[in-house]
Amino acid sequence: MGGIFGVASSTDCSLDLFFGVDYHSHLGTRRGGLAVLKEDGTFNRSIHNIQNSPFRTKFESDIESMKGKIGIGCISDYEPQPLLARSHLGSFAITTVGIVTNKEELVSELMESGTSFIEMSGGEINQTEIIIALMNTQNSIVEGIKYVQEKVKGSITLLIATPDGIYGARDKLGRTPLQIGIKKTNGSITAHCLSFESFAYMNLGYKDEHELGPAEIVFVTSDRYEVLQQPQKEMKICTFLWIYYGYPTSCYEGVNVETMRYNCGKYLAMRDKDADIHPDCAAGVPDSGTAHAVGYANEARIPFTRPFIKYTPTWPRSFMPTSQEQRNLIAHMKLIPVKQLIQGKKILLIDDSIVRGTQLRETTDFLYESGAKEVHVRPACPPIMFGCKYLNFSRSKSEMDLIARRVVRQFEGENVSAEVLAKYCDPETPEYNRMQEEIRKQLHFTTLRFHRLDDMLDSTGLEHCKLCTYCWNGRE
Predict the structure, then answer these.
(1) Which of 19, 28, 206, 392 is the most exposed, having the fewest neighbouring CB atoms within 10 Å of its CB?
(2) What angle do CA 285, 352, 298 make, to 5 degrees?
């Protein structure tokens, strides 16, 4: 995934920038970067690999020398950022979040016009460098951003720091968020920040000022912000932000992550009122499953318990390592069972999703090994059927890895039509029920019932048409 944060201040911004970026660490574990404008008009930049060390540890010595009033930074799971540029548009630093799915097409087009690129160590071209190249075909930064929004397939939300202030632009369809915070000192405005996560600036003295709409472009200085392009009406924000990626204290489109997850659990329990199960307790796979489980427990009027605890001081997020074997091992090592809460119990277990199924099967197996009598699983979202093509989510990129698609291929063969797939996405069909039962058998659950798409969308309280559901039903 990834997160971005920027500050324009009347005084030194370095500490606000440092902690604001650090508050995005839950969105990635590979790279972090900062760029601060110095008094001489040039940028001081630092980029580190944070796979084996927290962001704070890597950057705490750098920030001492990165003094300035304008700065941007990021957590990035792919390309190094921010990048520095000097062109006819001026000198600027830029950082992005999202994915360019038509990268090869754009690179070929730009190279034909004489643009050259520097390959990264893996042979890939830094997609933020592609964004710079697209912008440089236009006569101003604002025109360049609009051109990027027009040309890029996938999604791009970005921050551009200049000597005068920071440009912020949300993705054309608002798939990822961008918010403005305002800081006042003794009644006077002293700083503005731009942030992916709304909570990242709360403890830094900022208050909510403005949430950008889809395709909206703003320019932020220490004492004001200006809207340079009005938001468009159509929006397709990623629903997975609430289900999994977002931090519990975050809000998107005015909807808090923890509240939405609680509502999901409530809806799951309401659907289970016709089920012939009698769990002793509800539990969530930590951390993202916890609020879902609390909502379920309260609605079903059964105890909420924590039959295993996640050991977090040294283990990174389990889906981030390159090797699937490493991911599975880390997921297993992180969860420490509390056998006194497991032995002889019928447990209703909620996880945010089932992607490959490997980790949840191992979690279920060790619950049985620890003495659980039954394990009823209720994922907080529908079966994932399609790999995301709008954001760089490592969870669901390859459809070959998705357990739901593997089961469909098991039943239907390799070449499955869109019409047949649609039946497996519909919870009212025999095909869906057959797939759900096969997943239950393969993953060793006592019972399995996925969250319905309509219930999940209702849990946000937003209009369904504003929410992206591509990974569940393939609809754009």
Answers:
(1) 19
(2) 70
Sort residue 186 into left (φ over 0), alpha (ψ -120 to 50) or beta: left
Report DSSP letters for 317-333, one per residue: -TT-SS-HHHHHHHHHH
Lookup: tokens for 175: 């798939």
Task: Report CA 216 to chain centroid distance, whole Å.
Answer: 20
Per DSSP, 472 falls in state: H
Q: How far apart are CA 198 and CA 248, in angstroms?
A: 11
- In 371-459, DSSP assigns E strands to 374-377, 447-448
For 175-199, how does the pLDDT look when each residue is reduced to its tens digit (9 = 90+)?
Answer: 999 999 999 999 999 999 999 999 9
For residue 322, give the nearest of 71, 24, 78 by alpha carbon.
Answer: 78
Q: Is the dihedral of CA 294, 1, 468, 249 positive or negative?
A: positive
How confident is the model at residue 393, as a pLDDT? 64
Query: Quick one: tokens of 44?
Result: 């001081």
Say how far residue 49 (Cα) sits from the centre of its chain.
Answer: 19
Alpha helices in 93-154 (DSSP H): 103-112, 127-135, 141-151
Q: Report the 3 state secondary structure along 18-56.
A: HHHHHCCHHHCCCEEEEEEECCCCCEEEEEEECCCCCHH
With beta carbons less than 8 A apart as the criterion, state whether 268 and 454 touch.
Answer: no
What is the helix (H) or strand (E) element at residue 455, kind and residue range? helix 453-458
Residues 237/157, Cβ–Cβ less than 8 Å: no
Identity of the amino acid at 86: R
Give the Cα separation of 308 and 149 in Å (integer): 45
For 391, the token pair is 């954001």
The whole-angstrom separation of Cα 103 and Cα 143 is: 20
Report the amino acid identity of residue 256. N
What single-letter amino acid sits at 1? M
> Alpha helix locations (H) across 206-254?
240
CB proximity list for 312: less than 8 A, separation 6 or greater: 334
pTM: 0.92
Q: Tens of pLDDT along 36-75?
A: 999 999 999 999 988 878 888 889 889 889 999 999 999 9
| Separation CA 472–CA 384 (nearest Å) | 5
| DSSP structure string for 288-317 | TTHHHHHHHHHHHT--B--SEEE--SS---
For residue 392, give every residue at least 6 positions away whose Cβ sits within 8 Å of its Cβ, in sequence order, or none. 1, 2, 77, 78, 98, 99
